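2024-03-11 09:14:02 INFO worker-7 job=invfold-0412 stage=load source=structure_tokens
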């Protein structure tokens, strides 16, 4: 969900904007809607948006860490990496977390959210192991996956890259780890078949690292294996990825309308396991295309309204992600079922943009200026 204000790439701003807009649109459609078409659309948008964020985060963090590896990873620059990451993610996370506690206590007085160290789990990003989290600060689940990834990734790279030869072959080890996690997820599904695939698989921290590692893999190829990376920029990979995404959307949509004996098998084998491998790779090809496409970065970026919209949406995306359900809650209190009104939906988006812009300028940006000292 993160962005960096320096050395911006317009194509990646567009990608990040698409990701947050998909999440916001997906959240607008309530889970209890009786319209199956809308519900399937919501699930697709939410799922795709977060997966795109995961791969993009892995790609950007991967580039930072691999550049550090090439220079020589040591205790000092690992420490600075952690400080910079946590100064970017934690201050806003804990601010929104505190707001949630205040609002929750005022609106739900009979419900105790403090037993069994529940709030401590939120503080240390292990809330994904507690199903009650899905009813409190729900969107923080993806931050739980990302924060643990940020913590463990430098250690993983040091373990696999203690000399220059191993660094050149890092991409092979990353592929092996991605395959290993995908197989673990597959056999976990076959063995236990969790009924709630959202809580049991999608939010399960160790089973989701492969999405971010896919981004790291492409970052590794871009920096250390340029010949392979340049081949991946071939448009045929983009077209194949786009076709895969379209087919998944169509198939996912059909699952809610077409009943046949293969649905259960498909749901078990694909949507609970291989889906979480195929989608990140498809998005990775999309990311490198947008990052390197000349028309997007040199021509489209010259159109000022387009540049302004995507750059600002990208900059505000972290605030928008953390605040969107809070703003939606307030709109739902003030205007019952506001999502039925195009005017109120427009007001919701404008309000969210204004709040996020304010938070970015007066809260996030000063912290990032301090972060730049490390």
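2024-03-11 09:14:09 INFO worker-7 stage=emit residues=374
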């Amino acid at each position: 969900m993160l962005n960096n204000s320096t050395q911006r790439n317009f194509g990646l701003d567009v990608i990040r904007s698409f990701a947050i807009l998909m999440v916001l649109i997906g959240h607008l459609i309530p889970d209890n809607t009786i319209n199956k078409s809308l519900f399937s659309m919501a699930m697709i948008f939410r799922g795709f948006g977060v997966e795109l964020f995961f791969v993009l985060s892995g790609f950007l963090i991967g580039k930072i860490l691999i550049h550090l590896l090439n220079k020589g990873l040591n205790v000092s620059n690992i420490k600075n990496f952690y400080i910079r990451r946590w100064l970017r993610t934690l201050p806003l996370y804990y601010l929104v977390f505190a707001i949630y506690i205040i609002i929750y206590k005022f609106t739900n007085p009979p419900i105790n959210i403090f037993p069994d160290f529940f709030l401590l789990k939120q503080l240390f990003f292990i809330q994904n192991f507690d199903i009650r989290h899905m009813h409190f600060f729900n969107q923080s689940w993806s931050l739980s996956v990302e924060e643990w990834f940020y913590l463990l990734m430098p250690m993983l790279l040091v373990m696999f890259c203690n000399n220059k030869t191993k660094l050149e072959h890092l991409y092979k080890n990353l592929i092996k780890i991605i395959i290993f996690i995908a197989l673990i997820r597959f056999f976990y599904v076959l063995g236990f078949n969790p009924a709630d695939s959202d809580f049991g698989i999608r939010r399960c921290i160790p089973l989701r690292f492969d999405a971010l590692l896919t981004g790291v893999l492409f970052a590794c190829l871009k920096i250390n294996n340029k010949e392979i990376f340049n081949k991946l920029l071939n448009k045929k990979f983009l077209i194949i990825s786009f076709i895969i995404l379209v087919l998944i959307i169509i198939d996912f949509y059909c699952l809610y309308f077409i009943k046949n004996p293969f649905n259960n098998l498909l749901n078990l084998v694909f949507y609970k396991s291989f889906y979480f491998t195929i989608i990140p790779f498809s998005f990775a090809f999309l990311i490198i295309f947008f990052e390197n496409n000349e028309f997007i970065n040199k021509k489209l970026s010259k159109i000022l309204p387009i540049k302004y919209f995507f750059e600002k949406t990208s900059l505000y995306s972290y605030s928008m992600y953390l605040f969107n359900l809070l703003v939606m809650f307030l709109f739902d209190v003030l205007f019952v079922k506001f999502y039925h009104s195009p005017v109120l939906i427009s007001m919701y988006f404008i309000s969210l943009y204004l709040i996020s812009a304010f938070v970015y300028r007066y809260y996030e940006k000063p912290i990032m200026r301090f972060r730049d000292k490390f």
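2024-03-11 09:14:09 INFO worker-7 stage=report msg="The CA atoms of residues 128 and 204 lie 6 Å apart."
2024-03-11 09:14:10 INFO worker-7 job finished
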